[in-house]
Amino acid sequence: MARTDRLFRLLHLMRTLPQPVTAARLAQETEVSERAIYRDIAALRAAGARIDGEAGYGYVLEEDPALPPQSFTRIEIEALLIGLAEAQNSGDGEIAEAAQNALAKVIATLPERQQREAAHAVHHVFRYDRRQVPARDLALIRAACWEEDALRLSYRDEAGAETERVVLPLTILYAEKVLVLLAWCQLRQDWRSFRIDRIAAAERTGESFRPRRVSMLRDYVAGMKGGGDRFRATSASRRRFRGGLRRFPDISGPGGAG
């Protein structure tokens, strides 16, 4: 790990680990010696980080130069914490971890008084029926949404019948009990919602539908507002989304991951 990356990692660890955090724990987390940690702490202090503590006792990050101070009202703090707690209960491990990291960053930017208020805020979200956790990693599906890359899915319906679809993935929806992929189905030439726990296999095809994702989402939302709960694509929508996929060039080269 490059030293700059390690310094940012140290700041992140001091935001998230119970304080004071010892040099031994920091060394373990970053896989360097304690002597290197002492040098890194000195470098962070020289860069403006207010870090209380010393070798043998542990360290407390009192002011983080990487994050500007923020100010929120009590109700704003509670709203943020409830939202982040809900994300941690999303059934999506990657989002849950990101929410935990974001929570640590938000609290680190608050003045001391507001940090105390955050510690006392109600920010737990309880569910009697937890969302089903999909068996597969969502990272591939999420990346395909962001990068506007078509997906080939093997999908099982409620009766257990399996079909193969090529879809243009738009976004992951966090429904009450399940996670759902909203996508344009090339087979049906219409919008479809795919329960992620029923996706048996998924792979990126290497075909791009960039830059249409935002316009497709707007079209879908506008149709939902104008057409009730079940929005069917119009003929104009079908013409807009039919075809037009661009295949990415093969840049893997001989022996590449391909």
From TrEMBL:
Gene3D superfamilies: Winged helix-like DNA-binding domain superfamily/Winged helix DNA-binding domain
Transmembrane intervals: none
UniProt-listed InterPro entries: CBASS_pafABC_assoc_protein, HTH_11, WH-like_DNA-bd_sf, WH_DNA-bd_sf, WYL_dom
Ranges of residues in domain WYL: 138-203
Domain Helix-turn-helix type: 6-59
Protein name as annotated: Transcriptional regulator
Organism of this sequence: Hyphomonas polymorpha PS728
